[in-house]
Amino acid sequence: MADDREGTVAELQKKIKEAFEVFDRESNNTVDVREIGTIVRSLGCCPSEGELHDLIAEVEEEEPTGYIRYEKFLPVMTKVLLEKRYRPIPEDVLLRAFEALDPAKRGFLTKEELIKYMTEEGEPFSQEEMEEMLAATIDPETNAIHYKDYITTMMIDDS
Amino acid sequence: MGCSSSSAKDKKSEKVLRATLIIQNWYRGYRARLKARQHYALAIFQSIEYADEQSQMQLSNFFSFMLENYTRVHEEDPKLASRLFESNVQDIKDRQDYVGLVEVPDSYEGPRLQFPLSFPDIDLLIEAFKKQQILHAHYVLEVLFETKKILMQKSNFTHINTSPSKEITICGDLHGKLDDLFMIFYKNGLPSEKNSYIFNGDFVDRGKNSVEILMILFVSFLVYPNNLHLNRGNHEDFMMNLRYGFTREVLHKYKIHGKKILQMLEEVYTWLPIGTIIDNEILVIHGGISDSTDLCLLHRVQRNKMKSVLMPPMSIIGDNASNLKKNKLGVTINMPDKTEQNDSFSEQLSKHEWEQVTDILWSDPRGRKGCYPNTSRGGGCYFGPDVTSKVLSKYQLKLLIRSHECKPEGYEICHDGKVITVFSASNYYEEGSNRGAYIRLSFGTSLRFFQYQVTKATYSKPLHQRVNTIESSAIKILKERIIGRKTDLIRAFQLQDHSRSGKISTTQWAFSMENVLGLNLPWRSLSSHLVNTDKNGDIDYMSSFQDIHIEKPVKEAQSTVIETLYRYRSDLQIIFNIIDSDHSGLISMEEFRAMWNLFSSHYNVHIDDFQLQSSVRIPYASDPQLSGSGLQG
């Protein structure tokens, strides 16, 4: 049992190292703090912006430099993965979320509705995030997002 | 009532809030994973590109090795020796020799330039190239001839002054991507007395319009020699062009006069200035610096003696020397008494000068302090922020602007703001891989960066499509590498597979891949694209070779030969091109065999001569890349 767990930890840490190194532009074991979100999410976790903020606070230097060092990142991220924190959203939960925004049960959201929700509620999208989501989801003929089909396709692509 | 209706409202808005949070959370995760995949794909492209450059440098070691063995080669095969070592480039003094002999027929419908050139000629060329016309060889040669004349008058470093009303624009690598040059001119205006430009090297290779880019840049230079500045890049080098596509492009577009054009180009390259200095405080060079960079020396060297980075200098003793001595970079050899050979070896830079120029054209900045040999590329060095500070302050400079490396955003600032990389070829590796950028600056104002991305489609593809494109492209070239090392990989896997089950752990697989291929990549993250993993997390390693194979299947016994030839195909192609001095695409079997013997003994590749003879015809005939330098015999 102990051996198994050690093996798992070692494997996890190698994965973390790989993900970190890809963003380590100058090969000096640091990454720009703005890439932490991407790294954490690329490892399969889905923290909210608030949770990400807290995580960054944990790995930052006492006097923030704008860079995160691998030595600080590794133990924190290892714990996150072992505890299976920030689990990704299952497909059915995502579907119900879209349905909650579509009370009339039309099966779609208009472009304007999507923009309104995503940029005004919750943890609002930046302009870049909004534009990218629109480019990926909007059906140019109807100017709407048919969320059920979209979710099915994207879930496959993401796995 | 007031209370109940507001609580129903609250409930509803809470529901909406939670739903929104879920969707935002999920989308951000999805988007981040796409970005990570994009980074992985770029990492693959970049590591393979640098590994290629490294083997290019190894090729130069091979040439040094051949020169070391010159006496033996000369004794055994004088014809081969003279083909390899004789200088092909006659001194192009007389315009009549080249331009005069090439006539433009009346039927030619392409652009006709009027010498001396003026602004309308720039426009004429651009419009013609937009219609995909080809400039006649007569004009190409004339432009090259005139360009060389003016370049010869320039110093190694051009000193420029700017002011707020006289800004200058700095562009990085273009690598034959004409659309990017058009985009820059569209956004930023054509060159003129009021609109100065610096093009910081690597105009050619890889893209398919290197000729057109050179023509536009050289014509602009001839019209505005004091406003259009060109710095030499590491690809302005005829040896690099042999490998990276420019030579092929020229010979394809100019079937009759291509060779002349290439010869002229060799000379023009050597006269390109090494760099530019703006307002005595900004140094603009293609690659980078080293801790021993000596700008004073670089101002003085005879830059035209730097023919190619792959022909390092050798020192020569006269006929009477009886001892052969080797030094680190070249060798002292006993030259037979032949005046033609002496000409080609006497005009050389010293070893120190050669290293100084190579550093400028090949080095890369890195976060680590100090100065280390650039092992990825095989030439120049990696220089740290301390080196930058030291060299800049030694010469009272404030900033280094360089190119040489592809950056996802087209530019990147490092070393505390003292080093800026600018790269102008968007979609360099693949459509969607990166933006291009240029810089506008003037004395006393802050730099402005401009980015762009040239796309074929009239609308931008959504992120996931772009990522899918570059990802599949990257995986494809990675698989080509894998198949080129199949035998060595299988051996490495089997060493780990103690139980002979055909399966090894992810760690063992990743370790073997990295060791054999020499590519530092995130293997675990890429494993899903490359191999089959079972539910225990173990990898069926033979599945590394599925989905891709060299064109014609051959008998197992010969697979090592095929693999080796496949792996070295780029190097071999270069060597063929050198032997094939009339660029006919044909060399004899004997020449090939002589070449191969030298090559294989240097690289320690042992292949049975018989196997070589019988198998060699097969891969070249079927591999479209190689049949261009087709073997017959």
Automatic annotation (TrEMBL), chain A:
Sequence ranges assigned to domain EF-hand in this UniProt record: 11-46, 89-124
Superkingdom of source: Eukaryota
GO cellular component: sperm principal piece
Matching SMART domains: EFh
Alphabetical UniProt keywords: Repeat
Alphabetical list of PROSITE patterns matching this protein: EF_HAND_2
Annotated coiled-coil segments of the chain: none
Alphabetical list of Pfam families matching this protein: EF-hand_7
Keyword Repeat: yes
SUPFAM superfamilies with a match to the protein in the record: EF-hand
Annotated GO MF terms: calcium ion binding
Keyword Endoplasmic reticulum tagged: no
PANTHER family tied to this protein: DYNEIN REGULATORY COMPLEX PROTEIN 8
Protein name per Swiss-Prot or TrEMBL: EF-hand calcium binding domain 2
Organism (species): Oryctolagus cuniculus (Rabbit)
Gene name for this UniProt entry: EFCAB2
Automatic annotation (TrEMBL), chain B:
Keyword Lipid metabolism: no
CDD domains per the UniProt record, alphabetical: MPP_RdgC
Cofactor: Mn(2+)
Gene that encodes it: PPEF1
Enzyme Commission no: 3.1.3.16
Record keywords: Calcium, Hydrolase, Manganese, Metal-binding, Protein phosphatase, Repeat
SUPFAM superfamilies the record matches: EF-hand (SSF47473), Metallo-dependent phosphatases (SSF56300)
EF-hand domain: residues covered: 567-602
Substrates-to-products reaction catalysed: O-phospho-L-threonyl-[protein] + H2O = L-threonyl-[protein] + phosphate; O-phospho-L-seryl-[protein] + H2O = L-seryl-[protein] + phosphate
Name this polypeptide is given: Serine/threonine-protein phosphatase
A Gene Ontology biological process term: detection of stimulus involved in sensory perception
Family: Belongs to the PPP phosphatase family.
Molecular function (Gene Ontology), one example: calcium ion binding
